[in-house]
DNA sequence: GTTCTTTATTATGTCTGACATATCGTCCGG
DNA sequence: CCGGACGATATGTCAGACATAATAAAGAAC
């Protein structure tokens, strides 16, 4: 990368500000600084992929979407059904409440796609929190990024999100009655629908051998 | 938190250094700064739990281990079998190589626990990378933290890690023959053994209703 | 000519002191 | 009791200087 003084000239900022910005990127694993050699970009596998900022930046890029969206779908398909099962086993009154609230608002806004997006996010996040596992909460950033991306993708193509309400209801009810297998199956069904929707609306979602991609640093 | 100048006095550092340190913590989600109000700690769910530094810091604390280790085991039980299945489906020569190399060294060092730890880490990381899914690679930090912790826990209690070699071999061979279900099952068996070992060697692993823990910020 | 040692350069890392800016608490007047 | 002006305070930004270490180049020994 350009040196700190050069970056300072480029963006009209003092070296202090440049250094703090680089420190931020360094903390997220994007770059690494060594004396004399300067600051270099780190390989993709060093990035904190679940960091909310990194997810947002990669989304805003727009062009990088196809494999990105596909990977997102696959990881959600792994994590969220398991999280639903864990939540069914170990939820409490305190942690079940937010799930029920979010679902109630989803029912109220089932006719309006933009108003539906926020309770949808809260629903999935509340389930992750209800697992009681600290690491599951870390996926909230991922699901929120995914939902944000999918809303942008689907917003122009289809109507109201009404049909997904009963699928969400099935997840909630299975969790409420502490039916782990049922919650897992219901969440799988819900994500399958999402995946089909996204795949239908996006051309070239890099399914199949989508791995062989650019892989630029 | 104390103000930046106070921290500077406390640690004999200039405000520049203090600010860069705070920026690092801020990038990882531990703290947030607002003008005039000062810098405050953020709730646990805002932390980047998969960040390598945060995992290392939480491990070095020592006392926080019981629920931490339990959560680690549960997340691995969710992610790694699925990763093994994905790797079985979409590995290439390039991505299979590191798995085989790591396993070969595990066989050579099966008698020596400390020498065994490193290829063990590489084995699990290589599988995560072989999925071809960028987000799966992000779990490498987690599995490495987990293995580091488990080695510390088990090092004083038991002998050589020999018995786990055939379990690893089963995972490798299932991946090599592109048997997704087999790889998933083999990885589940491997992690089950690890979990049983850890639970046997640690008192009070916060199994069951381990959720109701301190939850301090 | 090759190799080892020394020196110089150059980037990051640290320090200092100052000013800018926004926000919270307080005070005052309506 | 309420709303606006004002001052205090902590973060945010700036400028210039020096420290430090790692690389590259120059030089000495063989």
Give an account of the 3D structure.
The structure is a homodimer of 217-residue chains. Chain A has 217 residues and is mostly helical. Chain A has ten helices and two strands; from the N terminus they run ααββαααααααα. Chain A has helices at residues 4-11, 15-27, 52-61, 65-90, 93-108, 113-130, 134-137, 140-154, 164-176, 180-201, and strands at 31-34, 38-41. The model of chain A is unreliable at 204-217 (pLDDT under 50). A two-stranded antiparallel sheet of chain A has the order 1-2. Chain A binds chain B through residues 16, 19-20, 23-28, 44-45, 47-51, 53, 67-68, 71-72, 74-75, 78-79, 82-83, 86, 90, 92, 129, 132-138, 140, 142, 209-211, and chain B through 16, 19-20, 23-24, 26-28, 44-45, 47-51, 53, 67-68, 71-72, 74-75, 78-79, 82-83, 86, 90, 92, 129, 132-138, 140, 142, 209-211. The structure holds a DNA duplex (30 and 30 nucleotides).
Please give the structural blueprint.
The structure is a homodimer of 217-residue chains.
Chain A: H1 4-11, H2 15-27, E1 31-34, E2 38-41, H3 52-61, H4 65-90, H5 93-108, H6 113-130, H7 134-137, H8 140-154, H9 164-176, H10 180-201
Antiparallel strand pairs in A: 1-2
Helix pairs in contact in A: 1-2, 3-8, 4-6, 4-8, 4-9, 4-10, 5-6, 5-9, 6-8, 9-10
The structure holds a DNA duplex (30 and 30 nucleotides).
Structural descriptors:
homodimer, 217 residues, mainly alpha, two-stranded antiparallel sheet, 2 strands, disordered C terminus, DNA-binding
Care to give the gist of this entry?
The structure is a homodimer of 217-residue chains. Chain A has 217 residues and is mostly helical.
């Amino acid at each position: 990368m350009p040196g700190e003084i050069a970056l300072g000239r480029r963006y009209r900022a003092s070296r202090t500000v440049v250094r703090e910005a680089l420190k931020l990127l360094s903390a997220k694993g994007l770059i690494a600084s060594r004396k004399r050699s300067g600051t270099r970009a780190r390989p993709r596998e060093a990035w904190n992929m679940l960091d909310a900022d990194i997810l947002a930046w990669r989304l805003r890029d727009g062009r990088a979407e196809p494999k990105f969206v596909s990977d997102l779908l696959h990881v959600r398909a792994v994590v969220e059904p398991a999280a639903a099962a864990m939540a069914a086993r170990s939820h409490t009154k305190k942690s079940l409440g937010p799930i029920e609230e979010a679902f109630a608002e989803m029912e109220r806004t089932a006719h309006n796609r933009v108003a539906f997006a926020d309770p949808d996010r809260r629903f999935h996040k509340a389930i992750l929190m209800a697992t009681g596992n600290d690491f599951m909460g870390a996926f909230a950033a991922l699901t929120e990024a995914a939902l944000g991306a999918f809303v942008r993708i689907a917003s122009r193509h289809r109507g109201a999100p009404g049909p997904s309400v009963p699928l969400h209801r099935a997840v909630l009810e299975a969790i409420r009655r502490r039916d782990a297998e049922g919650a897992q199956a219901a969440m799988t069904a819900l994500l399958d629908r999402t995946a089909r929707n996204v795949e239908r609306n996006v051309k070239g979602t890099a399914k199949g051998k989508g791995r062989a991609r650019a892989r630029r640093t």
